[in-house]
Amino acid sequence: MSISGSSSLGWAASSSQRSSYSLSQGGSARVSAGGAGFGSGGLSLGLGGAGGFGAGLGGGLGAGLGGGFGAGLGGGFGGGLGGGLGGGLGGSAAFSLGRSLTSGGLSSTLNVGGARVAPQLLSRATEKQTLAGLNERFYAYVEKVKQLQLENQTLQTQLNLLTGGTATSGPDSSAPVNYELQLTDLRNTVETLTLENVRHEIELDNVRGAAEELKTKYELELGVKFQLDADIAAMKRDIEAASELRSVLEQRFSAALDDLEFLKKTQEEELTSLQSKLGTSAETSVSLIEVDAAKSFDLTTALNKMRAEYEKSVQQHKEDAETYFRAKIEEINTETAKTSEVVATVKTEITSTKKELQTLNAELQSLLAVNYTLESNLAEVVARSSVGVAEYQAQITSYESAIESAKVELHKIIVNYQELLDIKQALDVEISTYKKLLEGEDIKFPELEVLSGGTYTYSSDTGFQKKESSSVDLI
Questions:
Q1: Which of these, 323, 33, 432, 371, lies nearest to 209 by C-alpha position?
Q2: Best-predicted range by mean pLDDT (43-57, 287-301, 366-380, 436-450)
Q3: Going by C-beta distance under 8 Å and a sequence separation of 6 or more, which residues neighbour residue 81?
Q4: Whole domain around residue 455: which residue ranges?
Q5: What is the 3-state secondary structure (H, E, C) of 375-412?
Q6: What are the GO MF terms of this UniProt record (predicted)?
Q7: Which residues make beta-bridge pairs with 44?
Q8: Is residue 148 part of a domain?
Q9: Is 45 helix (H, G, I), strand (E, B) or coil?
Q10: Least buried of 154, 209, 225, 318, by fewest C-beta within 10 Å?
Q11: Structure confidence at residue 20 as a pLDDT band (50, 70, 90)
């Protein structure tokens, strides 16, 4: 088993997606979308002078390369990470990507070529999801703007109905102006609360996007850690197998040495016994050897020669066996040293990865706390705005009732004024008649119809009298 490579693993996640908002006064509403480049986003809200409301949205995709690779992810998520960090991580895209980056083993992961493929894999794997998330966010913003425009038009219509009546002259003509000023203040307050609500929603969405990005980074690192743990387990099994093979080879080497020693002793004993036998036979048959000296040969020299050849062969086999076993032991030691270096490197990488995971977990917890705080603030603002709108609606209702009462009173005053004007005209006619009578003129007055419902007649004795209308039945 050979493992090459000494460079350390490193992943740097970078987020280049930012969101901002701005409030401005303008005469018309507008909606804009897009961005000049990657890694920028913004939302602008415009408040018209006559209650018009507008919004603009800019969005982008952020992606960058650090020590390894980085990505900026967009899109909000709700419900926290309760079910997302448990057993559900095994099927996520980031977890699968982290495993695939190290699935080829440490030799392919530590290689430079593998490091070049990682950003491409990340870009291809997350591009569609990022664009889909940005499209969903843009659609949500546009829908929110449309809803706010409809609400603004509704409020504008209600205000026009409340303040759009004809002005009447009378004692209380300044009351509608005061009501209109109060309604304008209430309208500005409602619009301010609406813009504040939108701002909190934008901040909450940004925090959710950052939390989603950290969740994706965490899943990616978790996938890498899972694959590295699997590789370490496989390496441990290889180390155990190599250790077992080494022990077996050492046992075989010891057994071969024992066999060699045993063979040496056996051969020495056989040579000793042969020499003793050959010496005894030489003493008993000296005459035969002397008689047949011309035909005999030196057995001692032959045996010594055979012994030398046998010892030489045994020594050669011993040297070959020692050379073979030494080569095997050196190879096993080399593999063990390489495996130990790789294990140390992997342990270092695991330690750094654990530190990064702890840092990411701390950031995630802080972002979750900020998210919870913003949600609480948003709920509080919504509750306050609801209560304020209800109070303002009650005040508007009371003002409408007061306006209606003032209109009724004004109508009564106008009717009374008209009646008094009719009586005044009748009295003017009577005074003119008295003047003419005093001057001695004989005047015949016609019947006067002054007010509806009565006829007045004049005589010199009684003056003006109201003549009751009577009906005559014709038979």
A1: 371
A2: 366-380
A3: 211, 215, 364, 368
A4: 410-467
A5: HHHHHHHHHHHHHHHHHHHHHHHHHHHHHHHHHHHHHH
A6: structural constituent of cytoskeleton
A7: 22, 56
A8: no
A9: strand
A10: 154
A11: very low
pLDDT in the model for residue 451? 44
Confidence of residue 468 (pLDDT cuts 50, 70, 90): low
Residue range 426-443, pLDDT digits in tens: 898 888 888 888 887 555
Report the chain's C-alpha Rg in angstroms.
Answer: 55
Task: Tell me whether residue 270 is in a domain.
Answer: no
Say which DSSP state 28 is in.
Answer: S
More confident call, 312 vs 455: 312
Q: Give the single-character DSSP code of 173.
A: T
**Residue 185 included in any domain:** no
What's the structural domain count of the chain?
1
Asked if residue 225 is part of any domain, the answer here is no
CA-closest candidate to residue 202, choices 385, 383, 381:
381
pLDDT digits (tens, 9 = 90+) for 205-241: 888 888 888 888 888 888 888 888 888 888 888 888 8
CA 342 to chain CA centroid, Å, is 36
Q: How far apart are CA 38 and CA 59, in angstroms?
A: 8
Residue 336 has pLDDT above 80, yes or no: yes
pLDDT at 175 over 60: no
Going by C-alpha positions, the residue among 81, 82, 63, 80 that lies closest to residue 72 is: 63
Residue 5: helix, strand or coil by DSSP? coil
| Terminal-residue alpha carbon distance, the chain | 137
- Reference 11, options 91, 133, 109, 93; nearest CA is 109
Per the listing, tokens 């425009």 go with 149
Give the pairing of strands 21-25 and 42-47: parallel
Dihedral, 261, 263, 268, 269 alpha carbons, nearest 10 = 110
